[in-house]
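Here is one chain, start to finish.
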Amino acid sequence: MDTSTTDYGHELLFGTFVTPVNNPAHQAVEQALVADRADLDLVTFQDHPYVPSFHDTSTLLAYAAARTERIHLAANVTNLPLRPPAVLARSVATLDVLSGGRVELGIGAGAFWDGVVGMGGPRRSPGESIEALAEAIEIIRGIWDAGDRSRLSVRGQHYEVQGAKRGPAPAHDVGIWVGAYKPRILRLVGRTADGWLPSIQYLKDGVGELTAMNKHIDDAAVEAGRDPRRIRRFLNIGGRFSQRSTGFLQGPPDQWVEELTDVALTYGTSGFIMASDDTATTQKYAAEVAPAVREAVAAERGRRPS
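Its structure:
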């Protein structure tokens, strides 16, 4: 593969990033229903167990999965330091089976360490958190490999399982999507993950940073003997619909279509997850932006030589 390519060929996915507030108690679930009924592909929730105004995200995902019909669900992203990987693997697999294959695993190395420590978790340095994430992914994939009848043993610096029984297997190939920004963890994405899940708000210089970040992922994938096209590139986005343009994703729907189409074709992004707790905004995004971006990207791909 020519790793200079910026289109990895994935079908586009569109979703929402819903705040898991617990007052009103059902607001986050109702917004998941809005996204489901609007035919979006994903609904995601942040996972900050140390925030008392938020629902527990694992419980929220289970409840939302029971209420929705077709949409996929994920944490955006799972707080690994407070969710042991072997138990997390079984939790995700269980919900995937119960939902008919509609759960994905967004996961991060950890952040907001004061909050983590306050809830009884470890405090890790950046290097330690990446090591722990690599060990966790190995354990999670090992637990899901129910066809292997051997016991799972992983002896890491941060996580260890000794003779764990494998299973259950998820109902479908659950994607492991990693939130990452720095070179070392981006290389981990290239070696081990199925997807990359950054947020635009943390890109100091805007979407232009994606080029160099993609290269870290692609180079590491090639070095590990993987095809970089196996790794889906997502982007958490935020914006506001208005009649006049005032900035990136700040304007009418046709501006959003033009800008997201450019991001998809220039940087290979194939999953756009919009922060929204508002019904009208979600419905407009689903009805006026998502299908138009899909159409524009498909048309451009059709014009390119195969």
